Amino acid sequence: MKALSQKRRHPIAGLALLLLGLLITGGLYSVASTMNQAQASNTGSSYSAEDITEGEKLFNANCATCHGVEAVGTENGPTLVGVGAASVNFQVGTGRMPMQMQGPQAQAKPNQFSDEQTAQLAAYVASLGAGPAIPEEQYLDTDHEDVDLGNGGTLFRVNCAMCHNAAAAGGALTRGKYAPPLAGVSEQHIYEAMITGPQNMPVFSDANIKPEDKRDIIAFLKQIESQGSPGGAALGSLGPVSEGLLVWTGGLAVLIGFMVWLTSRSS
Q: What domains are there in the chain, each with its CATH number?
């Protein structure tokens, strides 16, 4: 036993363990890279070679300045390898990319590309690495017989309302950033935002929120959007705070005006 213990403590044993650890780590990384390439190949196979080629041309002409050739990233923009087609379709489809100017976050604006060009850009980026794909139509159908508005409202309030407001009217965040209002946003772009996590938004994968639950959330948002503001002026949809402030300010103004009127009459 003593001899065995001495052998275990031999200086070469530490080096051997280090080499073994490096070998295992390298092997795992190689397997993971191979699997990612295979997934990317499968993802890209859903797009035609022509779409990928045209998308690459569009990317090199409009995006490579910031994101680098082959989308590997630069100091002015992150790598897009592995972000998936859904991320491209959201960012480009909402006009956030290309950015108009540098700022705390990309702002939505009119789309600079046609739907066909957006799809081609998405096809090219999807071919570079596995990532979230364009959502299936069945999960965008808010009139589906299995839609549960109550479940969608609950999930929205638990996961989204702290940033986007309980009425989905948006809200301010830190360092000049903000959660945008969700009225007028298409079902597809809402779904894509949930699975890609743009800006400060977290990613809600299918493990966090199932596709059917995402559909319920979208249906809830479209429901409250269609209702408008039945109570009158929305006042930012901030609830009793803005309403109370308006009443207090308005009431105070009336009292001051009344006092001025009384004073002027007495003089």
A: 1-134 (1.10.760), 136-228 (1.10.760.10)
